[in-house]
């Protein structure tokens, strides 16, 4: 088990955001969490990466308890978090954004960083064409690619993607999802949050349905795609 979330609860003041959430992720999987806005999907990722305080529960990564570990130490263990909204450094060039990503893993040597940059340019050739361009001048799709590439520059074992298709044109969304599959082929594990439930489940090994802070369904991507309740609630069927 690469990542294990057990009985996780998170409160925002008097509001219960997560209640007794259990999620397991094996090495090399794409696991998706689907659910409506406000279900607690982003809170789950922020809990893993140490950005919110837990009320209860245990989070382990490679059998190491990271429940109350600071966010920077969690990142150094090999967890990259690409938050919703891209959040690239707009005044930095593409190249400078990638270098900034590598700072999340202080064990990387210059040769490692050079290799990782080349890997990103193979995965995202459009970024290579814009290497000296300010990130703020890129299109939305290019900024999303850069945000993912910056996360991969840490050389993480687990990369968590929060709504990578948000605000993008359908043709770009398709491209982003193909890239997620290629990231898996490179040996990475992916935890994906996505409003486009149909696309997410179509590439996921397994999925979890989160409703008002609780996991209500789990199964393979194929099983959840065929589930009548999931179809009615999330797939427009």
Structure description:
The protein has 237 residues and is α/β, with parallel strands linked by helices. The chain contains ten helices and ten strands. It has helices at residues 41-48, 71-78, 94-102, 110-123, 125-129, 140-152, 170-185, 197-203, 221-225, 228-234; strands at 3-12, 15-25, 30-34, 56-61, 64-65, 79-82, 158-162, 189-193, 206-211, 214-220. The strands form two sheets. Strands 6-7-8-3-9-10 form a six-stranded mixed beta sheet, sandwiched between helices. Strands 2-1-4-5 form a four-stranded antiparallel beta sheet, covered by helices on one side. Helix 7 links the parallel strand 7 and strand 8 (189-193). Helix 3 (94-102) packs parallel to helix 6. 40% of the residues are buried.
Condensed summary:
The protein is built from 10 helices and 10 strands.
Q: SSE order, as H and E? A: EEEHEEHEHHHHEHEHEEHH
Give the helix level as a range of percent. 25-40%
How far apart are the termini?
A: 34 Å
- Averaged pLDDT: 95
Reported for the largest beta sheet, the result is:
6 strands, mixed
Strand order of the largest sheet: 6-7-8-3-9-10
Specify Rg, calculated over alpha carbons. Answer: 17 Å
Tally the beta strands. 10
What percentage of amino acids are in beta strands?
25-35%
Q: In terms of per-residue confidence, which ranges show pLDDT below 50 for 5 or more consecutive residues?
A: none
List the helices and strands and how they pair.
Layout: E1 3-12, E2 15-25, E3 30-34, H1 41-48, E4 56-61, E5 64-65, H2 71-78, E6 79-82, H3 94-102, H4 110-123, H5 125-129, H6 140-152, E7 158-162, H7 170-185, E8 189-193, H8 197-203, E9 206-211, E10 214-220, H9 221-225, H10 228-234
Parallel strand pairs: 3-8, 3-9, 6-7, 7-8
Antiparallel strand pairs: 1-2, 1-4, 4-5, 9-10
Helix pairs in contact: 3-6
């Amino acid at each position: 088990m690469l990542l294990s979330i057990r009985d996780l609860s998170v409160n925002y003041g008097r509001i219960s955001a997560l209640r007794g959430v259990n999620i397991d992720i094996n090495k090399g999987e794409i696991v998706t969490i689907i659910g409506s806005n406000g279900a607690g999907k982003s809170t789950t990722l922020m809990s893993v990466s140490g950005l919110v305080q837990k009320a209860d529960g245990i989070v382990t990564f490679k059998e190491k308890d990271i429940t109350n570990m600071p966010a920077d130490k969690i990142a150094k263990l090999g967890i990259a978090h690409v938050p919703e909204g891209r959040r690239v450094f707009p005044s930095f060039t593409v190249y400078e954004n990638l270098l900034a990503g590598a700072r999340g893993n202080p064990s990387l040597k210059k040769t490692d960083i050079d290799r990782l940059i080349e890997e990103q340019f193979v995965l995202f050739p459009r970024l290579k064409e814009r290497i000296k361009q300010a990130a703020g001048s890129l299109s939305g799709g290019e900024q999303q690619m850069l945000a993912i590439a910056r996360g991969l520059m840490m050389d993480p074992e687990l990369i968590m993607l929060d709504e990578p298709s948000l605000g993008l044109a359908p043709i770009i969304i398709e491209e982003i999802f193909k890239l997620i599959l290629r990231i898996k082929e490179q040996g990475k594990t992916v935890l994906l949050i996505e409003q486009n439930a149909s696309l997410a489940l179509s590439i996921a090994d397994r999925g979890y349905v989160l409703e008002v802070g609780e996991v209500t369904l789990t199964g393979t991507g194929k099983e959840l795609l065929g589930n009548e309740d999931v179809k009615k609630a999330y797939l427009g069927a």
